[in-house]
Amino acid sequence: MKRIPEPELMDTDEQARAYAAADFSAAHQSYVTLFSETFPKRPATATVLDLGCGPADVTIRFAKANPGYTFHAVDGSAAMLNCARQALKSRRRLMERVKLMEGYLPGSSIPRKGYDLILSNSFLHHLHDPKVLWRCIRRHAKTGTLVFITDLFRPASRARAKALVRKYSHAEPPILKRDFYNSLLAAFTPDEITEQLAEAKLDQLRVNVISDRHLMIYGRIR
Hints:
alpha/beta, Rossmann fold
């Protein structure tokens, strides 16, 4: 099935609220566990760049699990960042370690040149040009930087995409079902991502399918 790009930003209040209110807890917490298992010898303290943080649920989970980490969490959607600020309000201690930043890639003013860890969740499939993400990683990584990216992958057919929406979003509002379906159609396949990494000279990173709709891209920058 050919990829069908979607709008790069979920920038309406309705979209942001629906996404923030949805129950992604199982998947999001599994990313934290998978990160810990993938990098058992990770540093105890680190500066983290989180690209496309959305309402920051994944960011918050990583921060809680890694108390020595500080985060620069970037998103281009003001509506999503408003949800993120609300989520952080009840977590005062985390607010000291998580700095939310509104910015659109490419061109966002990211404070540090090099980070110890670069995270991203459900961001790649929003990009019309995936090179934007890989160039940002190369720009803000240094030798030894850990990279951990999770995203959807594109199913083989529209029928399979609709089946995934029914399976995982049957109780969600129509706008979330619509956005989930569009995101599945906009996602990249594992083979496409492997080709992107080779072109970006990031072939030290690996691509693994981790569920019937998710994959991870991970590794250490050499």
